[in-house]
Each structure stands twice: as structure tokens, then as C-alpha cells.
Amino acid sequence: MRVVCKKVRRYARGMSDARSALKGIAWQAMRDRGFDPDYSKDAIAQVNHTDESAAQPPASARRDLRNLIWCSIDNDESRDLDQLTGADARPGGTGVLVAIADVDALVPRDSPVDRHAATNTTSVYTAAEVFSMLPEHLSTDLTSLAQDVDRTAIVLDMTITPDGEIEAGDVYLALVRNKAKLAYPSVGAWLEGDAAAPEALAAVAGLADNLRLQSAAAEALKTSRHRRGALTLETTEGRPVFSGEEVVDIALQHRTRASELIEDFMIAANTTVAKFLEHHRFYSVRRIVRIPERWPRIVELAAEAGTQLPATPDHRALEEWLVAQRAKDPARFPEVSLAIVKLLGRGEYVVEPPDDPVPDHFGLAVDDYTHSTAPNRRFADLVTQRLVKAALDGRPSPYSVDELSAIATRCSEREDAANRVERQVRKAAAAMLLAPRRGQLFDGVVTGASNKGTWVKIHHPLAEGRLQRGTEGLQVGDRVRVRLVHTDPPKGFIDFERV
Predict the structure, then answer these.
(1) Bridge partners of residue 125, in order along the sequence
(2) What is the 3-state secondary structure (H, E, C) of 166-193?
(3) What digits encode the pLDDT tens for the residues 446-479?
(4) 51, 58, 356, 463: which could form a disulfide with 430 (CB 3.0–4.6 Å)?
(5) Taking the model in full, what pTM does it have?
(6) Are residues 132 and 184 in the same domain?
């Protein structure tokens, strides 16, 4: 830790190694927020002695689906591949298959690696460094669904009707093989007709047609969800851009049709797993977004735009207004979306008994939803995977209700802490970039307003800071003109005053 702090102090004294300084800030932020960025000696020893073949289930307990046209779609730099997707034509609809890496096979419960995962509960993705929940030799190799490697996976096999309903869902173990490692930007541009097929896609016979089939099924799933009241939201996130070791920009991360495809399939998969566990009468960890307590402010925002929403929370009415706003002013819609996201509040994990439904997910308009599709990155998904495998084997739940409740609470708390670490490092990078621009004016939108302070997000460059003066009367969603008055990169502070 002494080295980390030294890197931070060096930047504070004016040294220009921004990337190294950000790594120091990230490590300090991890420790400040209660994370353990280091693996124990026992965890490292466990990984070093892991025998991949020893964890393979017998052939009789799994299907062989290596002949299917599986592919992964993730970020360009991702190597911790949790899921593969595929599709086929079926009577009455489209078969959608999602294969989830069998992480539990190599990370036994209460092993040293599992204890580390239970402590942090999530991978933390900062602009400077990724702090993986599992050691990289596992998450990016042995438990990753890497291209051209045979892997055991839990397959969620769904039939999607033309109107986007999940007609049937099956869950089973299978042997799979990733035919192509693809990335969101290039596949998205191809699906949208703006670019030729990426080389990895074109190299696999039949993959282009398979992805078009997947895209059509995903679009049907999305349309069905929004018909039920799922919210149309378009938020923007900035990502530091480096030239050598210096931060030169905060680039806007764009959603593509490929990222939406994966999102649509993961929602369907998580719904299928939740119903599977309920059918087997297992208590399970669910993911919810409660009915928003700050609904009156949402009503005010809609009224300012000329629409009257009901006095009580109604996701269908909110969705209709959001769709109208996007059509009316697409350039400003990300601002509106960000305000709504802030006012909806955070998601959380809760335990659901099989006969006593918990509140649904307000933003997705679904009432059966868990997290199961990213066991390399989230502990809640690894726990859910163990529940699924127990149900498949006819065994009782490996966790008591009290254990699941404690896990749900811990995962919710750690997710919030991880978001704070990631946000602090992003703000540190933005503060480095903005430091020479003190005194300049920016247009922004209020993203937070409470007794803890008022925050404003500016657009060029994309950054968020605290409003030190001129906060009177401001609420989330208000547009403001601000002046940059102070930056402190090691602390991630960006301070504005209202003009």
C-alpha cells in the first residue's frame, strides 16, 4: 500500500504519469471501500493446483452441443467470457440458447477462492485496472468460455414466440465450444448495416445467418417487454482515453444493437432461471428495483415537458412518456434518461421464497428475475448456479435461507461500493483532464440533489462534479450553466459553481 500512496502523491506534486497515478488511486479506493484487491496465499495455491479435467461431470450427466454455432459477444478487451449464445428455427418460434460457464465446477463452495469471492462479491472495473472477483487464471482461462476450447456449461434453452414471449424454457448441463469471440462495436455496426462483417464472424460458416436469427428474436423479446411497461432508457457513460500514459479525452460509450441483443437474451435467461428454481421450490436470490419513492419528482419532470403522469407509480405510463420524449428530442433524451435512472433508485438483491413473491423489477417490468449469467464476475450469479445444479441433481439447496439472506445483503452493499470505486476513478481521470480548464463554462444537468450535496454532469468532456455554489432550488433533471472552480485528481473531486 505504501507504493500505491506514493504514486498518488507523485501526481499531486505535478508528475505526469496519469495511468500509474490512476492505478494508485484505484487501489486506495478499493481498500477505502472495504474491498480486498489481493488474493490470499491459499487462494493462489488453490488456483495453481486446479485440475480442469477433474471437475468435468460424466458424459451421462450432460449433452454434447459442441456442433452448434456458439459465439460470444462482449467488450473488445474482455477475456472473462461468461456466456455464449446461439439460435435455431423451431415450430412456432425461435430457439434461443444461452450457455453459462460452469464456474462452480472449479470453485467449490467455501474454498479459499470462494471465500475471496464472497468477500468482494463482484469484479470491479476501473479505468486504470480490473479487480477480478476470481483470479485471472480462472476467470480468463479455465472458467472462461474462450474460443475454440471445449467447456462444460449450464444451458438455458428457450423457445421465443414471434410476439416475444418465452413459450418454454429448459435448463441442463452441456459440453459447448465457442466458435467465434466477437465484440459489441464491430458486430453492432454489422447488424445495423454500417460495416462489413468482422473477420471472426465471416470465418465461421452459418454464423451470420445465426446472428440475424438471434437479433430478430432479441428484438421480439424487447418489444414484448416494453409492451408490458419496461422502461426505454438511454444513459451515457464516459471512458477515459489514453495516449501513452496521459488522459486525453473522456469518450462516450455507445450502445449498439449487439449489446442490446446480449442484454435482451440475458434478461430472458435470468427470468428462465428464476422460474426454474421456483418450479423446484427453491428459495432464490432475486434482483429487484422497487417502486420508486421519488415518483413525485418524476411526475414533476413529465409535467415540465407537458405530460401528466399518474400520482401513483405506473411503469406503463412512464414508458409511454419516455418513448414520446425520445421521439420529440433525441439529443436531450440521455439527460432525461439519466434523471429517471437516478430517481428510480438502485437495484438490490433479496431472497424470494417459492410461494411468496417479492416485489418485481420496476425498470424491466418482470416479476421473476435473478442474476445467473455472469458467475465469473458476480458472486450472486455463482450462488444461483449452485442452486440450479442442486435442483438438476435432485439435491436439497446448498444454502439455508439465512445464508441466502446474508449473501443478498452483502451483494447489494458491495455492488454499491464497487460503483463508488469505479465512479471515483472515472472522476479522477476526468479531474486530470479538466485541471487546465479551471474558470471555463460548461452546460450540464443536475444528477443528484439532496442534503448531501448537488451534483452536475457536463457533456464535453463527459464528467460529473459537485456544485459548490448556486444550489438553491435545483432538482434532479434541471439544466444548468456552471463554471469549473477546482479539481483534485487524487480525491476525484471536480467542483463547479452555478453561473
Answers:
(1) 130
(2) EEEEEEEEEEEEEEEEEEHHHHHHHHCC
(3) 988 888 899 999 988 888 999 998 899 898 888 8
(4) 463
(5) 0.89
(6) yes
